[in-house]
Design a protein that fits this description.
By secondary structure, the protein is of the alpha+beta class. It has two domains: 5-123, Jelly Rolls, CATH 2.60.120.10; 136-182. Helix content is 46%, strand content 22%. The chain has eight helices and seven strands. It has helices spanning 5-13, 20-23, 27-30, 99-108, 111-135, 138-148, 158-165, 169-181; strands at 32-36, 48-54, 56-61, 64-70, 74-76, 84-88, 92-98. The protein has a four-stranded antiparallel beta sheet. Strands 4-3-6 form a three-stranded antiparallel beta sheet. β3 and β4 (64-70) form a beta hairpin. The longest helix is centred in the last third of the chain and has 25 residues, at 111-135. The N and C termini lie far apart (39 Å).
Length: 182
């Protein structure tokens, strides 16, 4: 059964601002539903916000992965100049809006500013995840990654996974062999 846009937005916003539907009802109007095919690039306009409804999406600096986003996570395009690009790793659906649309609402409803600020803080948590991953002992990285992204390995090459984890492909293959032999 297909969920309404309001139901999907509620999954993202209820923890951030429980009464968002009452306090900021305009939010429903600024999000557009978008479907992406595997390998398709996301619009890379500064300040765009994607709420991942389903699928896996990647953030890359040149060819190096720096973040993955899965269902239930936001993916914010940086406001400042950047060299990132964003790709659908699997087929997926998002709800998309822009910073300018948030600002338009904020002009007459300042509650949206606090919601956006909390979303920025949550975005930082996702960015901190990779820093934590890279700080772990090499043998612990694979399990830490699979706890958060259990389906990722079947959608990307070992080379990309190893880059994301900050280890060699050879070490990744060895870790996978060890885990599969248990």
């Amino acid at each position: 059964m297909r969920r309404s846009k309001t139901e999907i937005l509620d999954l993202f916003f209820k923890d951030i601002h429980a009464s968002w539907q009452k306090d900021i009802p305009e939010l429903v109007t600024i999000f557009d539903e978008e479907r992406f095919e595997q390998g398709e690039q996301l619009i890379n306009d500064r300040g765009e916000l994607y709420l991942i409804v389903n699928g896996i999406f990647g953030k890359y600096e040149k060819t190096c992965p720096v973040r993955y986003a899965i269902a239930g996570e936001p993916l914010m395009i940086p406001i400042q100049k950047h060299s990132y690009h964003f790709v659908a790793i699997t087929q997926g659906n998002t709800l998309r809006t822009s910073l300018s649309q948030f600002m338009e609402i904020n002009d007459h409803n300042p509650r949206v500013f606090f919601l956006y600020a909390k979303m920025m803080a949550r975005q930082q948590q996702y960015l901190d995840y990779r820093h934590k991953l890279l700080s772990l002992h090499n043998q612990d990285k694979y399990d830490f990654l699979l706890d958060k992204y259990p389906d990722l390995r079947q959608h990307i090459l070992h080379k990309e996974l190893a880059q994301f984890m900050g280890i060699s492909e050879e070490l990744l293959r060895r870790i996978i062999r060890e885990r599969e032999s248990l």
